[in-house]
Amino acid sequence: MHAFDTRLIALITGMGQHSPAFTHAVEMITNLYVCKGLVLMALLWWVWFRHERADARSSEAVRHREREIVVVAIASGLIALAAGRLLAHYMPFRLRPIYEPQLQSLYPVASIHELLPRTWSAFPSDHAMLWSAIATGIFLASRPVGLYAWLHTLLLIGLPRIYLGLHYPSDVLAGCVLGFGIACMLNAQPVRTRLAAPFLAFAERYPGTFFAAAFALSFELTTQFDELRLLAHGVTHMISI
């Protein structure tokens, strides 16, 4: 563990001084989807619809650009989430800090109600990768709202996971950098236009099907496909019996 992680862990875990009330509040923030991705997904759809009534040619161009950004933000999030899972699987294993015997005294006693096996590597934080990619897309459409999206990602998604020992600070920092990089690469104008074009054409031709699928995908991204993972785990368990 680097000195960077050691100093930040001591600073962050000391914030609540292991107060049961503070720890309970952080647990709630970590477990509630509204404190994770729900708000950010809602902001993406705000970006999509905020110029819905635009009529002028220049306004129509702005609306088209922002809808491209929304499509690419979701694509960036999916790629970031998949990349985070692949990196965690193929890179050298890193035990969650809460399971490190020499660090356990630093962390409050908490009960996290999510899938967190000891075999799932801590590096990088897939939460940080996914939501930093989404926050970057929001920032490209609206700097003030995007600034909030980044603060939301850092303070309500990344920081609580460090406080509870789910990740090292470097796990979250690396996840943010990777998510930001993926979003920026896909938002290069030629890439963004080519990637978004078929989805925008489909939305124009089949709006009902498009928005039904978009709703389902937004839900799955918000929950980070938790139910599908549980379903896959259950099916695998049934087959192995």
TrEMBL record:
Presence of keyword Transmembrane: yes
Keyword vocabulary terms for this entry: Membrane, Transmembrane, Transmembrane helix
Transmembrane feature ranges: 28-48, 69-88, 128-151, 172-189
Pfam families listed in its UniProt record: PAP2
CDD domains found in the cross-reference section: PAP2_like
Domain Phosphatidic acid phosphatase type 2/haloperoxidase: 69-187
Protein's UniProt keywords contain Transmembrane helix: yes
Protein known as: Phosphatase PAP2 family protein
Organism: Trinickia fusca
